[in-house]
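[job 0417] fold request received: DnaJ-related protein N-terminal domain-containing protein
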Amino acid sequence: MINPVLPQVLSELRQHPEGVSEYYLMRTLERQHAFDDLTDDSLLALFRKHFIIMNALYDLQEILWDEERRVLNISPLHIELHKSRGEDDRVQCNTPLSEYYLDWQNFEQTLAEDVDRLMRLVTGPRH
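[job 0417] inference complete; emitting structure tokens
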């Protein structure tokens, strides 16, 4: 599946050479109506928005290296696209994290119960 937000994410990265956060990308894509089919405020909708963004980023990481020799550093707090200074700059693209986000089955098979269970592990029980 081709990620529908990939062009918007790439455009934002090119417009912000200083880098952006995942939160910034999510809010920008929401304003551009990229997530209109994920309108509810559930944790599952939030997970899906996050997944779509991370999928686009990891896909772009490979594309930008292969086509432009540009490096895309990815972390939730800082995502930055910059020019390579040589082969040593290449980011390892085949990591467990990238493999997870590039597999659309992980998007399709994750249920609200899965996200709730994960959130309870991270934050403890909700009151």
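[job 0417] notes: The first helix runs from residue 6 to 15. The mean pLDDT is 90.
[job 0417] exit 0
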